[in-house]
Amino acid sequence: MEKFRLPKITMPVLPLPPSVQKVLTEAESKLAHRPKLLQLFKNCFPNTLETTTKCLDDGTTFVITGDIPALWLRDSVEQVIHYVPLAKYDPELQAIISGLIKRHIFYVLIDPYANAFNETANDWHWNANDVTYMSPWVWERKFELDSLCFVIRLAHMYWKETGLTDFLDAGFKSAIRSIVDLFKTEQRHQELSPYRFQRNSGVAGDSLRNEGLGMPVNYTGMIWSGFRSSDDACDFHYNVPANMFAVVTLRQMQDFAEWVFRDLDLLAELKELEQEVQRGIELYGIYRHPEFGPIYAYETDGFGNYCLMDDAGTPGLMSIPYLGYTSIDDEIYQNTRRFALSKQNPFYYEGAVAKGIGSPHTPEQYIWHMALSMQGLTAQSKEEKLEMISLLEQTDGGTGYMHEGFHADDPKIFTRNWFAWSNSLFSQLVYKAMEEEIL
After folding, report:
1. Which of 170, 246, 340, 416 is the most exposed place for a label (fewest CB within 10 A)?
2. Which residues form the signal peptide (predicted)?
3. Where are the alpha helices (DSSP H) in 11-90?
């Protein structure tokens, strides 16, 4: 296995846009009574801009995930999503976010199956020996359905918040066409898909079985995915939260088709595809649990096999309302949430200092800060939101930042010292609490 040797990563420090500076000033007064939380927020809220963002000469924006010199479609969206509500009256922030959207579209048109990309066509890859089609622009080519959904999520949210349409050009419409075609192909992965992926790393979750095709699936109307949002291979390849995200994405693309491109044929095509995926979720994605009642499965193959778990990554079962698929008080979601936060979820851990959801991507007893932030963002009560904020505040391991996973007995034992997505999700939770005046 030839794995890329990570260089020492340095990114230019961007001047903070005025709207971001204003939020930090606001925090000085609203969080003055909690000095540690204030310092965490001041570290984490601007972290993406200060350490991972580069404005390129072509007017696009490149955002690395942190300690890896590549742009993940999913991560880069969630790294900047907390800035989008600030962008309406801030041209500096508009340039950064619209530049990232344009960069995403450039990458999707190169390879819609890839999950992570290089800044230039430098032929850098996480593993040079992956058995799949590789472009010199592609860092990694694990097909994760959610990656394409995140691209549309950022564009739609930015458009709705600012009213700006300059980025919604012919290239953007071509990317929508590419995404729709891929969705349709992957509804019938076994018969139609050209995608294969194998990696001889010795790690089971790094490669697809069945000579790179993945394990067999039945047609359901849902869309096949090779990998989860954790970059681990799916057990059963209809990832239910990713398909819920796809339903939301198809609705958002309908908005673009109807109100921007005025393309009624595309609009009708998107509506039909949305209905097919939604019907698949309803028929195949719900499991009758003996303790919790009907819950959403994490994955299924359409043959009656289910993966019952939740993972700390987004999309996951906890994040269903965060993605816009259903409301927080939806009965099946609440059943699913109770399951995910119980020991029936094999990746829920309780320790001496914390309890929460981890991931098969990290060792046992490692809870993810992102899972705690998402639990707070999707909580029904202010008490649970405040509980999650306090837990996050207490588990930074003395570093002043959020991490990937930390040991439930000792937060000083953690993975990923520099993980901007986790910092951004924490910042989003604290800022919303500030706005709701519950801190």
Report:
1. 170
2. none
3. 18-30, 35-44, 47-51, 73-80
